[in-house]
Amino acid sequence: MVLLAVVAAVVGLVREARSSDAPVTADAAGTSTSAAAPSSSAPATTSSAAPATPPPAAPTFDRTQLSLDAPDSLWVVVDKARPLAPLEYAPADLVDIGGRQLRAEAAQAMRDMTAAAAAQGLTVTLQSAYRSYDYQVDTFRNQVARFGEARAEIQVARPGYSEHQTGLAADVGGGGCDIESCFATTAEGRWVADHGAEFGWIVRYPDGAQDVTGYKYEPWHVRYVGVALATELQRTGTRTLEEFFGLPAAPGYPG
Question: Does this entry carry the keyword Lipid biosynthesis (predicted)?
Fold first, then answer.
């Protein structure tokens, strides 16, 4: 009997030792099972990638950086409702260009533009540039004498109301058409309309905008406003300075 008791005790110890080799877990049915060691071949878990940071928004164009009223500002807006102040204003930095005059920055921009056109085999010529107050007095008087005041005011500005007096406006020609509507149909005219903004020039009196600018379509009349503003006008598809800056339309002289 003693021998049987000893054998039973030894068997119990062996069973207990075996059962302690692995931890016991319960399966879904409540049956105790040994937990398996994690496999080294199991795929590692990965965290989801953080969302990409959106690119910064393009800076808003500052429409207040230059004056629209000061006569010597590159952005001065002159139309039939916005005369120069004083009416007899004359720029202080006029330089000669092709026998005519423009303000220094505009003159260099005109040289650059015509040179770029020439590199494309096109000849863009400067036909008219700065006109003094006194010159405009004579021009307007002659137009009134020929066509009457109503028609003259569509074609020529009153003295003190002309962009040419700022030294920032020019009339250009080429392709066999100078200072005429046909300029728009020439290769030179199309090039100026498409590429003028690269040099700071805009077609100031576009087609269909007479009710805003007060002047009929003049594809030859360009105005220097600087590359930044000219590019923004082109990018936004804005026809006129009046519309871009939220100024009143000027189809005619007040009063």
Answer: no
